[in-house]
Specification:
It is a single chain. About 30% of the residues lie in helices and about 25% in strands. With about 100 residues, the chain is α+β, with helices and mostly antiparallel strands. It has one domain. A five-stranded antiparallel β-sheet has the order 1-2-3-4-5. The chain is globular, with a radius of gyration of 16 Å. The two termini are about 15 Å apart.
């Protein structure tokens, strides 16, 4: 897990694939693992999040690469994230 962005309005976290984790001695099986990467975007204003994986994650990765090349303003980043926030349906809950 790698935090990419944190502002008053949004948090973006890159979830990276994990190596197979060792199981606790009493569990008898391996712990679940993340098979492919994805991005979690949390809209702090609404308290909702969206998880992008697959082709959505690939498109978002391209956006990140464009930001790295062009150094956007915070307003430009926030406007882009606001577009993804429209997909957010899941309330953020503490584990």
């Amino acid at each position: 897990m790698h935090m990419l962005y944190d502002s008053d309005s949004f948090v973006v976290v890159h979830m990276q694939p994990d190596a197979l984790l060792a199981a606790p001695a009493d569990a008898g099986e391996a712990a679940p693992r993340l098979v492919r990467h994805g991005f979690e975007i949390v809209d702090k204003r609404s308290g909702k999040e969206v998880y992008l994986d697959g082709s959505w994650a690939e498109m978002f990765q391209e956006q990140i690469l464009a930001w790295q090349r062009n150094a956007p303003t915070q307003q430009e980043v926030e406007e882009t994230l606001d577009g993804y926030a429209g997909l957010a349906q899941n309330p953020v809950v503490m584990h």
